[in-house]
Design goal:
With 494 residues, the protein is of the alpha+beta class. Helix content is 51%, strand content 15%. It has a five-stranded mixed beta sheet with strand order 9-8-7-12-13, with helices on both faces. A four-stranded antiparallel beta sheet has the order 1-2-5-6, with no helix packed on it.
Length: 494
């Protein structure tokens, strides 16, 4: 049934009177303020749905005559009976009856004037409800988001619909990220930093895989398989000249030093290896391509020194060499400290003052550029103390790590130049972007689902949510209906 605007407004007036009456009667019913608040909100949702219905009714029924010729010269014929579609809004479901155009009933609908006039989305969900749904989904599990939406608005989308919505937004988020302009130059720091790391995502068992036989897991064995998500960040920062003692003091106090400059316009992103037409698209390479594109925008013509700041993973440095040839490579100091503490506990008990002094002494040497002396000293201590077994292997792994990354450990030069030497940004991005959403208890992902969530969540984390949604809406509306000027020429615009 097609509701007229007068009928919708009459219903809205009745609901408004009911709302006022509810508030007037609340004191006599001795309702608490929060009970009045909930009641008012429920009635406002009903009123909002009626007002939306009135707006739709004012746009007519989409009957533009027996035939319509669109801007491309194609002639569309009106089908005999109105067709219905559902519009799921934040106020509830709104059925919309309208005339549609095509060749004949049962064939594809080729033109819907009312949909263009109202700017309806491609799917059933309104852009506002889509916004609210995905704000919840990027922070909470899909099923939790469904429950919250029902509790708050009385709407209950399916988990599957929210997952599909997220994947649609994921595709749009990828385009948005590649097209995003550089920040204003006056808001940038003088040094450009690129950092990357990897974080495992728990994956679903492939459908063709047989169920595993229940057995007790071995020590260190994980309960589920993971696939790597490669997480990267680009930001600029002001140079900050320090001495070795400044860093030692900060590390020992475990407090952020006063005056430390903050990263400017930090942008994070994550990519997983996917399949396209049977070919593997390496997520690590895609990520570094994105980082390189962003870095080129933010350091035009190589105007800023570029710092690649990462841990010792060889695959990451190989990509860095491909995409950032000439950049200053710096081994993250926090990973160096982890190795030093592991070595310290091979000679001194955990938590002891001696272990702390052991780490501080070698940290000071590394920060003063004495990497070779630290390596040789540790090798000598292995022989002198006759280390065997696991302790010997721990020290050997550490010295090998330092030797392999020696060219990225010129910390005395980096401090003098004011470069950052800790990749806390990458560590934080891995935790915040990946772990806090994709590694919750019981979660399992497909590659498609995980990649979509990472892309949408990255847009949200980067603070680009409103700009992204507006761009996505404009792009979809252009694809569906062309420009508003074209609609006006056809007499379809309100």
């Amino acid at each position: 049934m097609i509701v007229t605007q007068e009928q919708a407004f009459l219903k809205a007036h009745q609901q408004l009177h009911s709302l006022i009456a509810f508030v007037q009667q609340a004191p006599q019913q001795r309702l608490r303020l929060d009970q009045v608040e909930r009641g008012v909100f429920t009635l406002l949702l009903q009123l909002g749905l009626s007002l939306l219905q009135a707006h739709v009714a004012a746009a007519g029924n989409g009957d533009a005559g027996e035939t319509v010729t669109t801007a491309d010269g194609h002639v569309h014929r009106r089908l005999p009976a109105p067709h219905a579609r559902t519009y799921r809004s934040i106020f509830g479901e709104l059925p919309i009856q309208r005339f549609v155009y095509g060749s004949r009933e049962g064939q594809a609908i080729t033109h819907v004037p009312l949909d263009a006039t109202l700017g309806l989305p491609a799917g059933e969900f309104s852009y506002v409800l889509e916004d609210w749904c995905q704000r919840m989904c990027v922070q909470n599990a899909f099923h939790e988001s469904v429950r919250s939406l029902h509790d708050l608005l009385g709407v209950r989308p399916s988990v599957r619909s929210l997952e599909q919505m997220n994947q649609t937004l994921g595709d749009a988020a990828a385009d948005f990220a590649w097209q995003k302009p550089a920040p204003p130059p006056e808001e940038e720091g003088a040094v450009l930093v690129v950092t990357a790391d990897g974080k495992g995502v728990p994956m679903c068992r492939p459908e063709e895989a047989p169920p595993s036989v229940h057995r007790r897991r071995k020590k260190g064995e994980k309960a589920n398989k993971k696939q790597m998500a490669y997480v990267g960040a680009v930001y600029t920062i002001a140079p900050w000249v320090r001495t070795a003692e400044d860093v030692v003091d900060e590390v020992r106090r475990r407090q952020r030093a006063k005056g430390r400059p903050l990263p400017q316009h930090k942008q994070v992103w994550a990519e997983m290896t996917t399949l396209a037409e049977g070919e593997a698209i390496n997520g690590r390479s895609v990520l570094f391509g994105m980082l390189a594109e962003t870095a080129a925008q933010r350091s035009p013509a190589g105007s800023k020194p570029v710092i690649c700041l990462m841990d010792g993973e060889t695959a990451l440095w190989d990509e860095c060499q491909v995409w950032f040839d000439g950049a200053v490579g710096i081994l993250d100091l926090f990973h160096v400290l982890e190795r030093l503490w592991a070595v310290a506990h091979c000679f001194h008990s955990e938590g002891s003052e001696a272990a702390g002094e052991f780490v501080t002494e070698r940290l000071r040497m590394l920060l003063n550029g004495k990497v070779g002396a630290v390596i040789e000293g540790l090798r000598h201590m292995v022989t002198k103390n006759g280390l065997k077994g696991q302790r010997r292997q721990t020290v050997q792994r550490a010295t090998g790590y330092f030797a392999n990354n020696r060219e990225r450990m010129r910390y005395d030069e980096y401090l003098a130049a004011g470069y950052p030497i800790g990749s806390g940004v990458a560590e934080g991005a891995c935790r915040h972007l990946v772990k806090d959403r994709l590694e919750r208890a019981g979660m399992r992902w497909t590659v498609t689902g995980a990649q979509a969530m990472l892309r949408v969540r990255a847009v949200y984390v980067n603070g680009d949510w409103e700009a992204f949604l507006e761009k996505r809406i404009q792009t979809e509306q252009q694809r569906l209906y062309g420009s508003r000027d074209q609609e006006a020429e056809l007499g379809l615009a309100v």
